[in-house]
Amino acid sequence: MGQDLNDRLKLFSGSSHPALARGICDYLDIPLGEATITRFMNDNLFVQINENVREKDVFVLQTAHAPVNEHLVELCIMMDALRHASARRITAVIPYYFYARSDKKDMPRISITARLVADMLQTAGADRVLTMTLHSEQTQGFFSTPADQLSAVPLVCDYFRNWDLSDCVVVAPDAGSARRAGAYAQRLGLPMAIGDKRRLSDESVVIHSVVGDVAGKRALLFDDEIATAGSMLKLAAYLHEHHGVEEVYAGAAHGVLVGPALERLGQPPFLRTVVTDSLPLPEGAAAAGIEQVSVAELFGKAIYAIHSGESVSSLFR
User: Fold this and answer.
1) Are 209 and 174 in contact (CB under 8 A)?
2) Buried b vs exposed e over 35-47: b needs ≥16 C-beta within 10 Å?
3) How many Cα neighbours within 13 Å face the side chain of 172?
4) Burial category of 308 from C-beta neighbours within 10 Å (exposed 0-12, middle 13-18, buried 19 and up)
5) Integer Cα distance of 75 and 275 in angstroms
6) Which of the following is catalytic: 10, 56, 105, 197?
7) Which terminus of the chain has a lower count of CB atoms within 10 Å, N or C?
8) Is 105 a catalytic residue?
9) 287 near 166, Cβ under 8 Å?
10) Which runs of E-coded beta strand occur in 270-317?
């Protein structure tokens, strides 16, 4: 890698997660691309690329961190600037995809916004997209450009693999997440149980039962993301009250962690929560027992493989 790679490959960062961008650059042994991102007095964003990118293979990192809409527009403006600066190829690197949960029309007269975002990225100049652990796998089909989806499962499992897991069981919150939780259970060699969750509204869920042997065991709850932690709290409380589960651990690819999430995850029976650094941790996360594993090397490997024309399929699992 190093200097020869720097002559051909450039990585720029939006303002959503510069720490992750720097970690990827450290792995690739290249400097972070120089760009100016400011705001006019009329609140419009201004982006200027401060180095030559003509005929370079350019990657732009931006993740769906608050303020989400501003970061999405910033990403589009940056890619448009790079396109007009004659970059040979532009890859949007989006660890946590924008509007990932708006992936279907499950109510009348609403937008399938995840598809709209895919169209916006292509219009802005993205020749391909690199992301991780989409909320629904069909979202990958929204792109008419090449789109690679990395998996956080191996990273999160490596964290738990150092533990004594002899009395642990993986519990999926509902049937819809059973396949995802099953990937964790299979990799860790653990049994799995499934909760019967009914969602009454965006913030209201009810757990009716849990199918599987969980009595007196330690429970590992896995999902693609943790937003308010409402579903996980209800499931953890049900396991504790009805099955005598005293220790609950949570894991997810994306730690969105909004609203009351830190308060919920910081109370018994939760002991620890593990997420990746696809998003920055909010203040107070460590006090709530939340830890991060880094995706910098994973994305660094994928970026290098894409740039060099090598296969990235081994990184999807």
Assistant:
1) no
2) beeeeeeeeeeeb
3) 21
4) exposed
5) 24
6) 197
7) C
8) no
9) no
10) 270-276, 290-293
| Residue pair 188/170 in contact by the 8 Å Cβ criterion | yes
Catalogue all structural domains in the chain, each as residue range(s) with its CATH number.
Answer: 3-151+296-315 (3.40.50.2020), 153-293 (3.40.50.2020)
The Cα–Cα gap between 113 and 119 comes to 10
At a CB cut-off of 8 Å and minimum separation 6, what does 280 contact?
Answer: 16, 17, 19, 65
Residue 207 has a pLDDT of: 82
Two structure tokens written together for 70: 């501003």
- The token pair at 83 is 């396109």
**Cα Rg of the chain, angstroms:** 20
Residue type, 158: D
Q: Which residues of 243-262 are buried (b: 16+ CB within 10 A; e: fewer)?
A: bebebbbbbbbbbbbeeebb
Instruction: Provide the 3-class DSSP secondary structure of residue 92.
Output: strand
| 94/256 Cα distance (integer angstroms) | 14
Residue 209 bridge partners (DSSP): 196
> Residue holding tokens 């991102």?
37
Q: Cα(100)–Cα(103) distance, rounded to whole angstroms? A: 6
Q: Dmax of the chain from CA atoms?
A: 63
Q: Compute the distance between CA of residue 91 and CA of residue 130 in angstroms, rounded to an integer.
A: 7
User: Are 177 and 223 in contact, with CB atoms under 8 Å apart?
Assistant: yes
What are the 10-residue block averages of pLDDT along the chain, 317 residues in total?
74 98 98 97 97 97 98 98 98 98 93 97 98 92 95 95 93 86 95 81 74 94 94 92 95 97 96 97 96 98 96 79
Where do runs of H (alpha helix) occur along the chain?
A: 3-6, 18-28, 68-84, 113-124, 153-161, 178-188, 230-243, 261-265, 296-308
- Rounded to two decimals, the pTM is 0.94
Q: According to the model, what pLDDT value does residue 177 have?
A: 82
For residues 282 and 5, give the distance between their C-alpha atoms in angstroms, rounded to a whole number. Answer: 34
